[in-house]
Specification:
InterPro entries: TPR-like_helical_dom_sf. This is Regulatory protein. By secondary structure, this protein is mainly alpha-helical. Among the domains are: about 80 residues, 434 Repressor (Amino-terminal Domain); about 100 residues. The chain is about 70% helix and about 0% strand. The longest helix is centred in the last third of the chain and has 20 residues. The C terminus is likely disordered.
Length: about 425
């Protein structure tokens, strides 16, 4: 009796490429689900592990949901072992994939960004600046799911749809961060980076690395923040020169170094950011959010504050407030928080109180948990000076304004394990 030969994993994968479950698993980069589907079709775990060059123990961790594939090289091994088209996993076209079938397909691949996608990005970006990300997060996620994701698995789509998906996924990450959901933000940034790589837009990939650097620093990981800034700078060097992007990445690097108390390298990185922005032109990048003089001043104030150069930090903070447009209400609120903070650290409590009164009237209905969190940090700094009567009186007004903001943000603020707003 002839023993039946084991199934060819690549043939099985080819038969699954029209299965919505596989497409969804690939879009979510859930390789455990992909492995389970292959195993359920008769491919042994031993063959799967050997094909991907991992141990069976690690394979079981992926299949049982105890661990997730994170390394780019493993995704590439999976794509090549099972002939999963690169775009399904956010990768560049694999060497074994056939080239575009005809000139028409090639023209589609070279097509500029879809106007509807760019319009959506600009619409969400403008609304976010005015209202904060908390109220918009769901709308962006729905737009991604309903309008963009289906096109990722359409072979007629060019790489620009991956750029659109990357830009909107990164935007969802920022809105999650603005809503106080940093784990969710990190997951969005992690998904956005391979999408940007798949589009071939290394400038967009570098921009997303800058966002990951920001988030790492906000969660207390200065080492990770510096690493992401280095990654972004390396990616930016491979793409066209965009001075604003270089300035953004160098400020991220400077902030991480300042937080790690590496004063001289931080100062050098900040100076590099200033040189970059001096060379900026009017030519922008369609997917990158702007980085201008107001943004550099705001970041410089924080860097110089962390370096304890408070007089220089004050100059930059005042410049950030003066330059910030009225329509950028969240950025204006954050810049004013920084300005009050620096006044307190300089020991000028009267200036802190005067500036603080203006801060409380800055868009009190702004749907930003991040602003609320920074206000709470500022309050903790002020409380240490409550023996001074003007500070004590200001804190009374501050607490009244905080309660009003909390009521407006009650549906957005994440709950602590005890069920109360964190």
């Amino acid at each position: 009796m002839n023993q039946q030969s084991p199934p060819d994993p690549r043939a099985i994968t080819a038969g699954l490429l029209s299965d919505e479950r596989l497409l969804r698993a690939c879009a979510e980069r859930d390789m455990g689900a992909v492995f389970r589907m292959l195993n359920g079709r008769g491919v042994s775990t031993r063959r799967i592990a050997a094909a991907v060059d991992i141990t069976q123990g690690r394979l079981y961790e992926y299949m049982n949901g105890k661990s997730r594939v994170e390394r780019l090289t493993v995704f590439e091994q999976i794509a090549d072992a099972f002939h999963i088209p690169g775009h399904l996993l956010g990768l560049a076209r694999r060497s074994w994939e056939p080239p575009p079938a005809n000139a028409e397909h090639q023209r589609a691949a070279d097509h500029p960004p879809d106007g509807d996608d760019l319009e959506a990005v600009e619409h969400f970006r403008s609304a976010d600046r005015l209202a904060g990300g908390g109220r918009l997060y769901g709308a962006v996620v729905r737009h991604l799911s309903d309008r963009v994701a289906p096109r990722l698995v359409d072979l007629r789509s060019g790489p620009q749809v991956f750029a659109a998906a990357a830009a909107l996924t990164e935007m969802a990450g920022w809105m999650a961060h603005d809503s106080g959901h940093d784990d969710r933000a990190a997951a969005h940034f992690a998904r956005a980076l391979p999408l940007a790589r798949a589009s071939g837009d290394l400038s967009l990939a570098a921009h997303i690395a800058a966002s990951s650097s920001h988030l790492a620093l906000e969660t207390g990981d200065a080492t990770g923040a510096a690493g992401w800034a280095r990654t972004g700078l390396a990616l930016a060097e491979q793409g066209p020169r965009i001075p604003e992007l270089g300035a953004r990445l160098h400020t991220r690097q400077a902030r991480a170094l300042a937080a790690a108390e590496q004063h001289t390298p931080a100062a050098r990185a900040l100076e590099a950011a200033r040189r970059d922005l001096d060379g900026a032109s009017d030519a922008g990048h369609p997917w990158l959010s702007p980085f201008d003089g107001a943004a550099l001043a705001s970041e410089s104030a924080l860097i110089l504050r962390d370096l304890e150069q408070y007089d220089q930090a004050l100059t930059q903070a005042e410049q950030a407030v003066a330059l910030r447009e009225a329509g950028r209400v969240r950025s204006l609120a954050l810049s004013r928080i920084t300005l009050v903070d620096i006044h307190v650290r300089r020991g000028d409590l009267d200036a802190a109180v005067i500036t603080g009164h203006g801060l409380l009237s800055t868009s009190p209905t702004l749907g930003s948990v991040r602003v609320m969190q920074q206000l709470d940090e500022l309050r903790r700094l002020l409380v240490s000076h409550k023996a001074y009567q003007p500070v004590r009186e200001y804190l009374v007004r501050f607490d009244d304004a905080r309660r009003a903001r909390m009521l407006l943000l009650a549906d957005l603020i994440p709950l602590s394990p005890g069920g109360t707003p964190s």
